[in-house]
Amino acid sequence: MRILFSPHSDDETLFTAYTLMREHPLVVICTESHIQPNRGDVGCTEEIRKQETINAMAILGCPVVFLGIKDTELTREILIDRLKPFVGNWEKVYAPYIQGGNSQHDLIGEVARHLFPSIERYTTYTKTELWTKGDREIIPTEEEKILKIKALDCYKSQILLPSTRPHFLAVINKSEFLI
Hints:
Elements (H helix, E strand, L loop, with lengths): L1 E5 L4 H13 L2 E7 L2 H4 L7 H15 L3 E7 L5 H8 L8 E5 L6 H13 L4 E3 L13 E3 L3 H11 L3 H4 L5 H7 L4 E3 L1
Parallel strand pairs: 1-2, 1-4, 2-3, 4-5
Antiparallel strand pairs: 6-7
Helix pairs in contact: 1-3, 1-6, 3-6, 4-5
């Protein structure tokens, strides 16, 4: 079995949709959305974002579970505690590469490297680049590009926000990368 850790509801589709289509890992969404609603963003509650991910995973053919950690309360200790039940003999473990683009992405990547001896790290973004490359390129077929776009379309709450829309535009029809 394979497992993929995603910091937020949408990161798994933004950065690893082609891997998800090809390998069908268990997708673990680590946090739930509270930062956006707390700052006044409308239509992006934890319930809405969770359903968006469920819909996207149905398109990509992956099972999904949610750890339920509020993104406003994520700490190393809480994350370690919630990830411990997943420690085991996985054929492959995917987690974010530590890139300095998002502190929560980096924390999840760091904790995954600590708990799992061998992981595949996927690129997300840096402070200056919304689309980054890596050591191993996952080149999509035309059919995979179409499926990724359908899955990305599930995240209406994020596509409508000016702060997150650029992430969606940056990954359309691009390869994904592992380190």
